[in-house]
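For consistency, the fold was encoded as tokens, which produced the following:
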Amino acid sequence: MIDLTKTQKKVARELIDLGLQRECKSFTDRITKFTNSPEWKTGNSHELYLKLYKEVTSFDKHIGKRYNDLTGSSYFITVLGLFYDEVLKPEDIARFDMDVQNELLRMKSLYDNDLWQNRI
């Protein structure tokens, strides 16, 4: 793990915001697809409401865990999580200097290769 400079933290904040926008867009697209489905038009209204409520609640918990109460010291790990989950792409992290990019790639490869899980 590395400490981000003030400039790198600014980039991280912008990428975290981009990640939030992308995750919300993906979620609203999923909900739109669900509400346009034949099931939505013909299904039991209460069961459909419960499904929708469950999806919204689950997404809200995910968003809260990932994005609430972020401080500068958690920016790197948050960006790493977004990169690992493919919310952020390689071209997004290219905004960082080479040291940060290389560390993100190195850490991602540890997770990709299950080396990290085998250490625990």
